[in-house]
Amino acid sequence: MSGIKAAIVGASGYSGEELIRLLLRHRHCQIGVITSRQYDGKAVETVFPRFAGSGLVFSNPDIKQIAEQCQVAFLALPHGLAGEFAIPLLDAGLKVIDISADFRLRSTAKYQEYYKTEHPAPDLLKKAVYGLPERYREKIKSADMIACPGCYPTSIILAAAPLLESGLVSTKGIISSSISGVTGAGRKVDLPFIFPECNESVRAYSVSGHRHLPEIEQELAVAAGISELAINFIPHLAPVNRGINSTVIMDAEPECTIDKIAEAYHNAYHRERFVRVLPHGKLSDTKYVTMTNVCEIGFTLDKHTSKVIVTSTIDNLTKGASGQAIQNMNIRFGFDESEGLL
Amino acid sequence: MSGIKAAIVGASGYSGEELIRLLLRHRHCQIGVITSRQYDGKAVETVFPRFAGSGLVFSNPDIKQIAEQCQVAFLALPHGLAGEFAIPLLDAGLKVIDISADFRLRSTAKYQEYYKTEHPAPDLLKKAVYGLPERYREKIKSADMIACPGCYPTSIILAAAPLLESGLVSTKGIISSSISGVTGAGRKVDLPFIFPECNESVRAYSVSGHRHLPEIEQELAVAAGISELAINFIPHLAPVNRGINSTVIMDAEPECTIDKIAEAYHNAYHRERFVRVLPHGKLSDTKYVTMTNVCEIGFTLDKHTSKVIVTSTIDNLTKGASGQAIQNMNIRFGFDESEGLL
Amino acid sequence: MSGIKAAIVGASGYSGEELIRLLLRHRHCQIGVITSRQYDGKAVETVFPRFAGSGLVFSNPDIKQIAEQCQVAFLALPHGLAGEFAIPLLDAGLKVIDISADFRLRSTAKYQEYYKTEHPAPDLLKKAVYGLPERYREKIKSADMIACPGCYPTSIILAAAPLLESGLVSTKGIISSSISGVTGAGRKVDLPFIFPECNESVRAYSVSGHRHLPEIEQELAVAAGISELAINFIPHLAPVNRGINSTVIMDAEPECTIDKIAEAYHNAYHRERFVRVLPHGKLSDTKYVTMTNVCEIGFTLDKHTSKVIVTSTIDNLTKGASGQAIQNMNIRFGFDESEGLL
Amino acid sequence: MSGIKAAIVGASGYSGEELIRLLLRHRHCQIGVITSRQYDGKAVETVFPRFAGSGLVFSNPDIKQIAEQCQVAFLALPHGLAGEFAIPLLDAGLKVIDISADFRLRSTAKYQEYYKTEHPAPDLLKKAVYGLPERYREKIKSADMIACPGCYPTSIILAAAPLLESGLVSTKGIISSSISGVTGAGRKVDLPFIFPECNESVRAYSVSGHRHLPEIEQELAVAAGISELAINFIPHLAPVNRGINSTVIMDAEPECTIDKIAEAYHNAYHRERFVRVLPHGKLSDTKYVTMTNVCEIGFTLDKHTSKVIVTSTIDNLTKGASGQAIQNMNIRFGFDESEGLL
Questions:
Q1: Distance in Å, alpha carbon of B174 to nearest chain C alpha carbon
Q2: Which of B243, B298, B300 sits opposite A202 (nearest CB)?
Q3: What pLDDT digit, counting tens, does each position of A27-82 carry?
Q4: Which of B206, C140, C157, C220 is 20 to 30 A from residue B310's alpha carbon, by CA?
Q5: Which residues of D touch B197 (CB under 8 A)?
Q6: In the 3-class helix/strand/coil scheme, how is chain B assigned residue by residue?
Q7: Burial (0-12, 13-18, 19+ Cβ within 10 Å), C260
Q8: What is the pLDDT of residues D294-338, one digit of tens each?
Q9: Are D44 and D54 in contact (CB under 8 A)?
Q10: Rounded CA separation C192/C184 (Å)
Q11: Which residues of A are less than 8 Å from B302 in CB distance?
C-alpha cells in the first residue's frame, strides 16, 4: 500500500483547515497541492499558525499541476464551483471528493429550487456517489466522484435511517431540531457572526427551507423505500465552536419498542467504527465527539406521545465535513477506514 | 401609593439574586427581610458582591419577623417547602408570590407523578393563581397566593396559547424544542454543571417527562378550551448564562394563514409591555431579551409541512422567574406594571 | 429640575447601544436625536431589537437639528471626527460629552504620535475636561466639553491614582496587565473578531504602544504630581462580551503597608458610589460589575517582591464608556449622580 | 522497538482523560492498567464516553498488578500521594512519570512552605529529574523518576529561560501575568467553578504565593546561573476550557536587541519540535496550540520602558501536563519524541 498525494482545493476556510489537520497525520496520503486564490503564495502557517513547520504554501488552483501531482482532490469550495474543477480532474484520472453541496442532490430541480441557480454539471451528478460510508460504503469503494454529505444531514440521516428502514417509525411528521456551533457558518466575516453577536445568544434561523433540507429528505426517503417524504428541519445557532446536536422526533409505529429500536441501531452500526449508539436512557453530547469523526446517538421512546426521540451529535467539521471526506478516501483507496481519524 | 416591604425567602440562588437586583431598583417596594439558612448572618455582599452597599444581611427564615415587617413574601425555595412558609404568611395577611413549582399544577395527582412526593399543601393549591400576567392578570389583581410559572412554561405558553385559543393550530402533536442557559439549573454545585462540562457542549436532557411538562400541558389545554392535551417538551442545555429559546412546532389548521397568526398575536399582546411579537420572517434571539422582562416571539408558517413554527425567547431568571414575580407584585399592589422592570 | 434632551451622535456601535439602554431609563433626560449615517431612516429597533417600542429612528447627523432640539450631545464617533460636531454644538450652547479619544490627551504631540494624524481641533482641546468624575468632579460641574476616558484607562487610573497620590508606590516600573471582553473592539466586522476566532482563545495584543497608553501615563503623572512617567500597558482579549480586568503591579515604597493602602483607597473612594474597594485579600471579578457603572478594586501587598498588586474591574461599555458619560452628564446638569445608573 | 504497557494511576480527572486520549493513539505504548478509587470497576467510557470501544475499565490501584503488567506508570494524583506509589513501583523496576507537584521542587523547605505539609518522600526527590525536555532532555533519557512541570511553569520557563541564560534580561523584577482556562482547576466540583460563575467572568486569583511560584523561581534561577531569584507570578482565570497564556515581562539589559532575543530563542529551540517561536511582532494565541503539545512564543522589546515582553501559550492539559508526560516517556524509552503527539 504505497502513499498517495492529495490536493485540497479551496483550503482557506474551516473545512480546509480541518482537512490539513487530519491529512498531516495520515500515513498513506500526503498533501501535494493546497490552493487558495486569496492567499496565493502565502505559507499556510501565516493563515493557520497551527501548521507551522508543515512547509505548506497556498497556490492558485491549477488543474494541470494538480493532475500531475495528485491522485485525489478534495474540493472545499462554495457551491456552484465544484464542477469546474471536478470534470477536468476526473478526466485526468483523479478521484474527486467534494465537500460542497453541488453533487449531493440527485434532482437538479431541487438543486435549482434551493440554491437559486441552475445545476452547474448535471451529467457529472449521475456519477456522484453520496459519501455517507455507513449507508453507501460499497458504492464508495469504486466511486470516482464522491459527494460528501452536509453536516446537518450527516447527523440526521445517521439517526433516522435505521428506524425508517426497519419500519419502526412513520415517514410522516419527522422533525429535526438541530443546534450547530458557529464554525458551521464557515470562516465568514459578517456582522451576525462576530463574537458579541453570537456569545450569550441562542437563536433559530432558516427554520423553513434551509438548503440542507432536500438532502435530508432525499436520503430519508431512500431509507424508507419511498420516493418522497417531507420533514421539518429547524436549525439553531449556539455559542460553541464545533459540534452539532440533532434531536430527531419521529412517530413510533404501533409495534415499535425500545428493544426493537436498540436492535435496529445495533444491526445498522455494530460494525461501524464511527457511530456510537448509547445504551437506552443516555443522551449524546457534542463535547464527547468534538475533534473526532464519531457520531454519537442516544434514543428514547416517549410513551406519553408515542414518539421516538433520538439525539445525534457530531463534530460538524470532522464527521460533518473533512473527517468524513477522509473516511471516504480511505475506503476508496483501500486504506484502513480509520487511518488519520483516531 | 406608599411603599411596601418584601421578604425574599431562600435568597441564595440565582432567582434570589435576580430578585434582589430588581427590587433594589424598585421605587415602591423595599427589601425588608432576606433569608438563607446557609448564609445566616452574612452580609448579602459577601455572597453577591454586586450588592455591596445595600446593607442587606441574610437571616434565618423567621415567619413572625417576616409577618411583622413585610407586606409581601417572595418564596424562592426548592419544591416541597413553599407551603410551610406560605400558609402562616397568608394567615398573617401577607401576599405570597411563589417562584417554586409547588402551586403551579392544579392536579395533585400530576404533582405527585412528576415530583415523586405527595403535594405538601393541597388546600392552599386551590387558592393559588397561576402568575402569568398576560393570561391571568385579572385574577392576579386580587390573588393572595400567586404561583409564578416555570421558565420553560413561560416561553412556551406565551408562544402557543394565542394560536390554540384562536383555533389556528391543532391541539395534537405540539412539540417544543427548547434550549436553556445554565443558570436554569440553579446555583447547583454538581459535576455536569462545572464549566468544562458545559462549555463547548450542547446536549438534550430529560427529553421525556421533564417536570415542567405537566404545567405546560395544563395551560395549553386551558388555552385550547379542552380538558387535556399531550405535547413533547424537549429541553437542551447550551453554554450561555441566561436565556431560553423555545421553538414551538404546531400543526396548522386548514384555515391558518400568516395574517391570521399575526392577528392572533396582535390581539393577545398588542397592549402587553413585556411581549414583543416580531414581524413575520424575523426570529427571536435570546441576546435581545437577556436582563429584561421581555418575551420575544417570532413566527412562520411552513407550507411544505403545514406547520406553524414559533420561536419564543426569554431571560429565564427575569421573565422566567424573578422579573415575572415582580410584575405580579406590581399588578397585585396596583403599582405600574413595569415598575422596577425597565 | 426639569428634563433635558440628548443627542446621540454615531449610535450604531456598542457604546451607542449602551447609551440608549441607559438613557431610556433616565428620568431627567430623553433621547431627542439619534444619528447614524449607515442606518439613516431606520427604526432603532431594526438594528437593536432590544429597543422595540422606543419609537426611536436613526437620522443622518444634522447639527442644526441637534442644536435646536437638544441640550446635550453624546459623541460616539471614531477618532478624528468629534471636533467636527463638537465645535458647532458648543457654539450653539450645548454641552458636549465625547466618548471618542480626541480630547483625552492634553498633548497634541502625543495625539499625533499615537493616532498617526494631526489633532483635529487643538483649540477645543484646551477647554475639554477629562471626564473621570472620581478625579475631576469639580471641573466637570462646569465643563462644556467633557472627554470621557477610555475603558482601559478608567480601570487603571482608578486603581493606581490614590496610591501614587499618597506616595505609597513608586512612579517607576508600573505595569498593567489588562484583559478585555470583545465588545472592547467595537461592533467591528473583521476576521479576528468572528466568533470562532475569539472563542476558546486568549491572546495579548498591542503590548507595546497601545493608543490608551499615553492617556494612562498622563493621568498617572498628574496623580503622582510629576510631569511624566512611563508604564507598561499590556492588553489581552478574552472570550467574554463585556468586562475589563486590569491587574496593576507597582513597586511598594518602603513605608507602604496594607493598612496604608486601605486608607488611601478609603480616603479616595469612601464617598464614591461607583467605586467599590474590597476588603484586603479579596480580588475583583468582572462578573460582579458587568451591566453596572461600578469599578471594583481588590488589592494586596506581596512581601516576597515588595509589589503592590491591584485588580480593578469595570464593564467596558458602562463605567468604561457610556455609563461614565451619563455620570458626567448627571454631574454637569445637577442631576443625582447615579440617575439612570442603578 | 517493541511495545510497552503503561499504568495511569488516578485517571478520573482531566489530566487522566488527556493521557488516555493520547495513549490510545500511541503506537508503542498501550494502556495496561488504569486506576480510580472512585470509579473502580466502571468502564472508562461511562465516565468519558469519548473512549467508547476502548475496552478500558477502571480498577482500584494495586501496586503488584501494575508492577507485573507495566513498564511505566503515569501518576496523576493529588499532591502528597505520589511517593506512596512511586517508591514501590521504582523498586519493581518501572519508570515513573509523575504529573503531581510532589517531585518538582528540589527544596523540601519550599515544598513545606507552599504545600503546608512535610515532603512525603525526600529521598526520592533527589532522584527525580525535572521533566521539561527542552531543558533536561539528556537527564530524562536515563531518569527513572520524572517529575513533570506544572502547567504555568512550563509556559513561563520556556519563555524566560533562554533570555536569562544569554544574559539579555535582568534576573530582577520578572513578572508573569498568566491566564488559564478552567480545566486548569481540575475536574473539581466547587461553586467558583460552575458554569455561571466562570462564564462571562475574568478574574485574578492567588496573585501572591501561588503554589507554582517556587517551581518557576527554581528553574529561572537555574537558567540564570544563580542560586535564587524572586518573581511575581499572577494567574487569572478566563472562560475557556483549555489553554494558558503567560505574558512575561522582563527588564532588558543594555545590550539587548530584538535580533539578540531572536537569536537566543533560535539557539534554544530551532531543533525543538514542540516550541514554535513566532517572527518578531507576532504574538501567540492559545487557540493555535490547544489540543497540541506545542508551546508558541511571541516577543517584542518595548523601547519606551526597556522591557522585553514575551507571550507564551500552551494547552495546559497537553504540553502543560499529559502531552509533556508522554514526550518524557518517548525520550526515556527511545521512541520518536513526537510519537502519539502529532
A1: 28
A2: B243
A3: 999 999 999 999 999 999 999 999 988 999 999 999 999 999 999 999 999 889 88
A4: B206
A5: 195
A6: CCCEEEEEECCCCHHHHHHHHHHCCCCCEEEEEEECCCCCCCEHHHHCHHHCCCCCECECCCHHHHHHHCCEEEECCCCCCHHHHHHHHHHCCCEEEECCCCCCCCCHHHHHHHHCCCCCCHHHHHHCEECCHHHHHHHHCCCCEEECCCHHHHHHHHHHHHHHHCCCECCCCCEEEEEECHHHHCCCCCHHHEHHHHCCCCEECCCCCCCCHHHHHHHHHHHHCCCCCCCEEEEEECCCCCCEEEEEEEEECCCCCHHHHHHHHHHHHCCCCCEEECCCCCCCEHHHCCCCCCEEEEEEEECCCCEEEEEEEECCCHHHHHHHHHHHHHHHHCCCCCCCCC
A7: middle
A8: 999 999 999 999 999 999 999 999 999 999 999 999 999 999 999
A9: yes
A10: 13
A11: 207-209, 232
Give pTM, 2 decimals. 0.97
B196 closest CB neighbour out of D183, D190, D197: D183
Q: Nearest by CB to A288, from D50, D285, D288: name it.
A: D50
CA B55, B59, B62: angle at the middle one, nearest 5?
130
Give me the interface pTM, i.e. the ipTM. 0.96
* Chain C interface with A: residues with Cβ < 8 Å: 14, 181-183, 187-191, 193-200, 239-241
Neighbouring subunits of A (3+ Cβ pairs under 8 A): B, C, D
Tens-digit pLDDT profile for residues D237-271: 999 999 999 999 999 999 999 999 999 999 999 99
Min distance B47 CA to chain D CA atoms (Å): 11
Q: What is the per-residue pLDDT across D44-53, written as a single tens digit (0 to 9) for each?
A: 999 999 998 8
CA distances in angstroms from A84 to A69, A96, C330, listed in the order given: 19, 12, 64
Cβ-based contacts of B175 with chain A (< 8 Å): 175, 177, 249
pLDDT in tens, A127-159: 999 999 999 999 999 999 999 999 999 999 999
Neighbours of D142 (CB within 10 A): 9
Q: How many Å apart are CA C54 and CA C139, to the nearest integer?
A: 34
Grid coordinates representing B308?
406553524
Say which of A148, A151, A198, A256 is annotated catalytic: A151
Residues of C marked as catalytic: 151
Q: How far apart are CA C274 and CA C173, in angstroms?
A: 28
Task: Please name the helix (run of DSSP H) or strand (run of DSSP E) that holds residue A108, with its range, or none.
Answer: helix A108-115
What number is the average pLDDT over the span A202-226? 97
- On chain B, the residues whose CB falls within 8 A of the CB of A318 are none
CB contact under 8 A, B195 and D200: no
Instruction: Please tell me which residue of chain A has the smallest CA distance to C200.
Output: A241
Do residue A53 and residue D276 have CB atoms under 8 angstroms apart?
A: yes
Residues 6+ apart with CB under 8 A from A95: A71, A72, A73, A143, A144, A145, A146, A329, A332, A333
Backbone angles phi, psi at D86, to 5 degrees: -60, -45
Name the band, by pLDDT with cuts 50, 70 and 90, for residue A2.
low
Calculate ∠ Cα B134-B140-B141, nearest 5°.
110
Cβ–Cβ < 8 Å for C44, C54: yes
> Are A83 and A102 in contact, with CB atoms under 8 Å apart?
yes
* Among candidates D181, D189, D240 on the partner chain, residue whose Cβ is nearest the Cβ of B194: D189
The predicted pLDDT at position C82 comes to 86
Delineate the domains of chain D, giving CATH numbers in brackets: 4-149+320-333 (3.40.50.720), 152-316 (3.30.360.10)
Residue of D151, D198, D256, D295 marked active site: D151
pLDDT of C163? 98
Q: What is the pLDDT of residue D283?
A: 96
Q: Measure the CA–CA gap between D34 and D7, rounded to whole angstroms.
A: 6
Average pLDDT over residues D168-177: 98
